[in-house]
Every structure is written in structure tokens, then in C-alpha cells.
Amino acid sequence: MQRKTIMSRAPWLAGAMLALAAASAPVIAQPIPAVPQSREQMALSFAPIVRQSAGSVVNVYGARVERRPQNPFMDDPFFRRFFGDGGFGVPQERVQRSLGSGVVVDVSGLVVTNNHVIEGMSEVRIAFADKREVEATILLRDPRTDLAVLKLSNTRDLKALELGDSDRLEVGDLVLAIGNPFGVGQTVTQGIVSALARTQVGVGDAQSFIQTDAAINPGNSGGALVDMQGRLIGINTAIFSRSGGSHGIGFAIPAAMVRVVVESAKAGATTVRRPWFGARLQALTTEVADGLGLDRPAGSVVASVVEKGPAAEAGLRRSDVILSVDGIGVDDPEAFGYRFATRPIGGTASLTILRSGRRLVLPVKLIPAPETRPREPMVISARSPLAGATVMNLSPALAEELSIDAGTEGVVVGDLEEGSAAARVGFKKGDIIVALNGERMATSRDVQAAVSERKRAWEITISRGGQTITSVFPG
């Protein structure tokens, strides 16, 4: 409907096309651009699309109160006499705020934004372009995709943006970016799709970004990237900039991934349910591609397969090269991860693979990762380098959630208290504790028992990003 509105403003283009169709030249001529002949023809505008879409794009305000240690001199009458109740001007509480954008995707009150906009926030408010403000609660956070879903407390007069098909985007398509840059108020910028399937962006780990030259600035995070039919085809999330402003290189999370996160929130899940593959992949090198007879290094090599996982049951083997998912090529493990993660749970995905020079098509079941054993989270409070860490039993479900290798054995660091001993010495969420003082750790209870004993020194072996690291700490 919207496309018809726009085309009606360009009769000069339609006339040129009709003239071309009527030509009887033996060679098909190319359309000849024509100069607009009237004011109406010159008034081609994106305003109808903006009117259709802008009301669904909101501002997201987050806040949290941080308590700071009280100045020890404030209770001293001498210092209070000379400096008064203000002491040294150090407040006991400080409010930290965040500002971003969001998109209403369901009239039931669901709003999608970036996870980094509301990360750590205890209070979230939504402001509409018509000055209305509504409180919101955080339904679901997904750091892997840098997406979050909010639920509005008041759903009166909501208008939701329709999710478009981001898989049908092509480089050169016109797009609009709508958001709240620098907190100045709602702003619309126009550009084109500059590139697709960008993976080396450094935001999240289950992505295949849309790149656009539509201006995206700080505060646009979580805003809408819409197509010429006013459909949401991406959530603006990052820019490439040396100065903090737009340099014409912005990135958006495709609507296909947004749909997965929203559907999980609608189902009442607190984490996103994705298909589990059950295999570790590596990028295909030029040397290996040449040896396989491929004209370019496009594909993912199966490095290992988890026993009884979907990949193993489908018949995948080590050294197989995955070329496509459901007929869509995947150039690297990141592209495969995105494509596979956007398939709906419950069906199958067809993988085209190369094995010993032969192309095969294998159906892989799309099932969520199993929780093969209870997580049994344990918060380490005993004096040790791990104090303040929450350790859990590793399972395929937890490995999928934390984006770590499901085939690794051990106990995983599931969370870290800010400023804790574990955080200060350098442990990170997702570290796998393999051994303490030479003793293998199989469960979270093993770690809890091991640190309950005082030691003069701690030798801790962890696995991080496929590398084994051993460090020694004083007791």
C-alpha cells in the first residue's frame, strides 16, 4: 500500500518505462533518466513511511542507584564542624542513567531494544514521540545478540511495527533509521543497505549484521531500521566511528534474529531458545579450499562433534565442510551460527556438505540444547581467588547460553560479583574451571568443597576460548 503511494508521486518515471516498452528497436534499450517536469514530480518524499513507522519507535531511559562507601571522616565532629554536613562532597548514592531507543513490536506491549541500553538498570521508562511516558519491566535479556525485550505497563493506543523479511534484503535497498540520537528527540535518517552478513563487528556472538550508511549516532541504539514498506528489518545497534559520531558505517541486527528473541519472550521464556547444533566449527582456509577443489574459502570445517547431539545424529563427521543451510551459503562459522540460530525449533534444517570431494545433503533436527544435569549454582564465599564467583555444572544448555564449547568438561563460571576477588584477579564469565591444586573439578560441589579449605597457594587451571591457562595465586 505504501509503495503505491510513493510511486504515484513519480509519473515521469512511469512514463519513461511505458515509452521504453513501446519502442520497436531490435535491441532492448536501457531506461533513460528523465528530468522531473512538475512540482509534484519533484516532491518524492519518505514522509508516508515515517508517518507509518515513527509512532512505534520509542525512547528508552534506564536508571539504577549505586551506593558508594560513606566517607569515614563524616562521623567525626571535628570534620563536621569545619566542613559541615557536606563533608568532602562525596554523595553516598549516585544514580547511573542510560539512554537509547526501542521499537514496539507487539500491541500487547512488547518493546525490543539493545541489551547494552538496559544492562544493569533497575528502572526502565519508555517515552513516545507524543510525550507519553510509560514504565516498563525487563522480560528477557540476551547478551549473545545484544537484544532485550521489555513489557510496557500501559498498552493504550499502541502501534506495533511489522517485522519484515531481512533475508530478502539486497545491497542497494533504501532504508530509514529512526531513533533518538544524543537525546535530542526522534530523528529519521535515510540511506541504503551497504553490505550484508557482516560478522566481525564485536557486538554479540550470534550475529550477521546489516550494514547501512544511514546516519546512526549515540542514542540510536535499539532504534528501527525500516524498509520502504515501513516494515522493521533491523534493530540499529553499533557504529564504526573514531570520533563518536556517524561516519556512514552503521550496523543493525536483522529482523530474523529479532523474531527469534521476541518469540521466546512471548512464550514466557527467560532465555532465548535456539536450535542446538552439537558440533564445533572452524573457518575454511585458502589452502584447504584449494585442496578440496573449491574456488574460494567459503564454508565451515567440522572440528569436533558432540556425542548424541543433533549433528552426530544427522551423520556429520570431523573434517566435513558445511557449505549452506537450507540452500543459503554460509562463508564462515559466524555466518553458519546466525543462519542456524534463526531456524525454528521443531523442524529440520538441510545442510549441504562436502565430504571427500562429494556433496551431500544432511537433515539436522532443530531441537534446543538439553539440560543433561542440574546446574546447581554455588556462590563461592570462602576466602580464595574464586570468592564472588558463581560456579555451575556444565551442560549443553548452559554451554549454548554462554557460547562455549559443549564438549569441554568441568565447572563453568556462570556469574561474577562486581568488585569481587574473582573479578579482580581476572576470572571471566564463561571460564571453565578444570582443576584446583591439581585436582580435577567435575561438579560445582567439588569446587565449593575445595575452596572451603585454607591453602597457602592456589593453582587454578581454566579453559578459556579453547586455550588452557594455569595460574598460581597466594592463599
What would your notes on this structure say?
With 475 residues, this protein is α+β, with helices and mostly antiparallel strands. The chain folds into four domains: 2-45, no CATH class; 46-273, Beta Barrel (Thrombin, subunit H), CATH 2.40.10; 279-365, Pdz3 Domain (Roll); 378-474, PDZ domain (Pdz3 Domain, Roll), CATH 2.30.42.10. 19% of the residues lie in helices and 33% in strands. The protein is built from 13 helices and 25 strands. Strands 19, 20, 21, 22, 23, 24 and 25 form a seven-stranded antiparallel β-sheet that branches. A six-stranded antiparallel beta barrel has the order 1-2-3-6-5-4. The protein has a six-stranded antiparallel barrel with strand order 7-8-9-12-11-10. Strand 10 and strand 11 (232-239) form a beta hairpin. 36% of the residues are buried.
Number of separate strands:
25
Strand content: 25-35%
Q: Classify the secondary structure makeup into a structural class.
A: alpha+beta
Q: Kindly, what is the distance between the CA atoms of the first and last residues, rounded to a whole number of angstroms?
A: 70 Å
Helix content: 10-25%
Please state the second-level CATH architecture of the largest domain. Beta Barrel
User: What's the overall average pLDDT, rounded?
Assistant: 80
Morphology: globular
Q: How many independent structural domains? A: 4
Helix count, per DSSP?
13
